[in-house]
Specification:
Pathway: Amino-acid biosynthesis; L-methionine biosynthesis via salvage pathway; L-methionine from S-methyl-5-thio-alpha-D-ribose 1-phosphate: step 1/6. It is a single chain. By secondary structure, this protein is α/β, with parallel strands linked by helices. The chain folds into two domains: 128 residues, Four Helix Bundle (Hemerythrin (Met), subunit A) (Up-down Bundle); 226 residues, Rossmann fold (3-Layer(aba) Sandwich), CATH 3.40.50. Helix content is 39%, strand content 19%. The chain has twelve helices and 18 strands. The strands form five sheets. It has a seven-stranded mixed sheet, with helices on both faces. Helix 4 runs antiparallel to helix 5. The two termini are 35 Å apart.
Length: 365
C-alpha cells in the first residue's frame, strides 16, 4: 500500500540483505519509525510488545526471526530453540504456529550449511504468499460491497470494522480492509466506521491512520457506538478479521468482536469475517472451549498513551492507583453469528461444510 504516495509493506528485508525492517506500530500514529531486527530475540520481542501485530504479519515476522537465528547458529538445537522461543510469544493467532512449522519442516531436512539461504527463501515465500492471499480476499470481498451498493438508493456503502485488519496487520492489503481498498480504488463510494478498539486502540491509532493515508472516507467511533449505528440503519455491513478460525467456522478476533456480531444479528446487518487459509486451525472444532485466549497486562486497561497539546507522547492513568484490571485480548464469535467467511479461495458459510468446500484437501488431512 502507499503512504503519502510511497509504496510500503509492513515487513521487508533491509538493504544489507539479511536484517529485517518493520514499521514500529507502537509509535503510530504520532511517529513514523522503521525498526531493524537483527536477532531472533529481537523478532520475538517485536511480536510480544506488538511492534508488529496482526495474525499474518506475526507469522511472517516469526519466519524471518528463524532466519536471523540460523545466521548465528544453524544447528538442530538452535533451530529448535528459536522455534520454541518464537512460538511462545503469543498464544491465540494460529498463523504464528503455521509459519514456524512450515519453516521447521523445510529446514530440518537440510544439512546446517544449507539452512540459512533456504530459510530466507522460505520466509520470503511465506510473506509473498500472504500478500497474494490478501489481494484475493480483497477481490472476493469486493463482491459483497458491490452487492450492498446495489441495495442502496444513494450514499456510500457504510462498513463497520473492529480492530486493525488492514495492510499493517498483513504484510500488504489486509484481510478485512482489502475489500474496502479494492472498492475505493474501483470508484465505489465507501465510508468506514472505525471502532476505537480498546484497550490498545488499534482502530484509532492504526486503522484510522492507514485509511487516511489511502484517502478512504472514515469516521472514528467509540467501541460501544456500533450497536447504536446499526439500529439506525447507518451500517450496511460489518467486516472484521480473525486471528484463529476453527474448522467449524468459529472465529477468535480482538476483544469486542463478539458484541458487534450480536448487535449485527439483532439489527439484521450482515457480519462477514475475512481470513487467509493460514488462519484456519483445522485441529480445533469448538472455538469457545479450545482456542486459548491471551491475557495481556493490566496496564493496557488502566493507562492510555496519546499525544499532548505540546506534541509530546505521554502515558497517563485512567483508573485509581491499584485498581485491579483484567485484559483478555480476544473473544470468540460462534459460527452461528457469522454471515459468511471471505477467504482467498472464495466466500463460504461459516461451517465445517463450507470450509471443506473451499479446502477439500483438508478432508483427508
Amino acid at each position: 500500500m502507499r503512504i503519502d504516495g510511497t509504496p510500503y509493506r509492513a515487513i521487508w528485508l533491509a538493504e544489507d540483505g539479511w536484517s529485517v525492517s518493520i514499521i514500529d506500530q507502537t509509535r503510530l500514529p504520532w511517529d513514523w519509525a522503521v525498526a531493524r531486527l537483527t536477532t531472533a530475540e529481537e523478532a520475538a520481542e517485536a511480536i510480544e510488545t506488538m511492534r508488529v501485530r496482526g495474525a499474518p504479519l506475526i507469522g511472517a515476522t516469526a519466519a524471518y526471526g528463524l532466519c536471523l537465528a540460523l545466521r548465528i547458529d544453524a544447528s538442530d538445537a538452535a533451530l529448535e530453540a528459536a522455534h520454541d522461543r518464537l512460538l511462545a510469544t503469543r498464544p491465540t493467532a494460529v498463523n504464528l504456529r503455521w509459519a514456524l512449522e512450515a519453516m521447521r519442516e523445510r529446514l530440518r531436512a537440510l544439512p546446517p550449511p544449507e539452512r540459512v539461504a533456504a530459510s530466507y527463501a522460505q520466509a520470503a515465500e511465506i510473506a509473498e504468499g500472504e500478500v497474494a492471499t490478501c489481494r484475493r480476499i480483497g477481490e472476493h470481498g469486493l463482491a459483497l460491497i458491490e452487492e450492498a451498493r446495489r441495495g442502496k438508493s444513494g450514499g456510500p456503502v457504510n462498513i463497520l470494522t473492529h480492530c486493525n485488519a488492514g495492510w499493517l496487520a498483513c504484510v500488504d492489503w489486509g484481510t478485512a480492509l482489502a475489500p474496502v481498498y479494492r472498492a475505493f480504488d474501483a470508484g465505489i463510494p465507501v465510508h468506514v466506521w472505525v471502532d476505537e478498539t480498546r484497550p490498545r486502540n488499534q482502530g484509532a491509532s492504526l486503522t484510522a491512520w492507514e485509511l487516511g493515508k489511502h484517502g478512504v472516507p472514515h469516521t472514528l467511533v467509540a467501541d460501544n457506538a456500533g450497536g447504536h449505528l446499526m439500529q439506525r440503519g447507518q451500517v450496511d455491513l460489518c467486516i472484521v478479521g480473525t486471528d484463529r478460525t476453527t474448522r467449524r467456522g468459529d472465529v477468535a478476533n480482538k476483544i469486542g468482536t463478539y458484541l458487534k456480531a450480536l448487535a449485527a444479528r439483532e439489527a439484521g446487518v450482515p457480519f462477514y469475517v475475512a481470513l487467509p487459509g493460514s488462519t484456519i486451525d483445522w485441529t480445533v472444532a469448538d472455538g469457545l472451549a479450545e482456542i486459548p485466549i491471551e491475557e495481556r497486562g493490566a496496564a493496557e486497561v488502566t493507562h492510555v498513551t496519546g499525544r499532548t497539546a505540546a506534541g509530546e507522547v505521554a502515558t497517563v492513568a485512567l483508573a485509581p492507583e491499584g485498581t485491579p484490571a483484567a485484559n483478555p485480548a480476544f473473544d470468540v464469535t460462534p459460527a452461528s453469528l457469522v454471515t459468511r467467511l471471505v477467504t482467498e479461495r472464495g466466500i463460504c458459510p461459516a461451517s465445517e461444510e463450507g470450509l471443506m468446500g473451499l479446502y477439500p484437501e483438508r478432508a483427508s488431512a
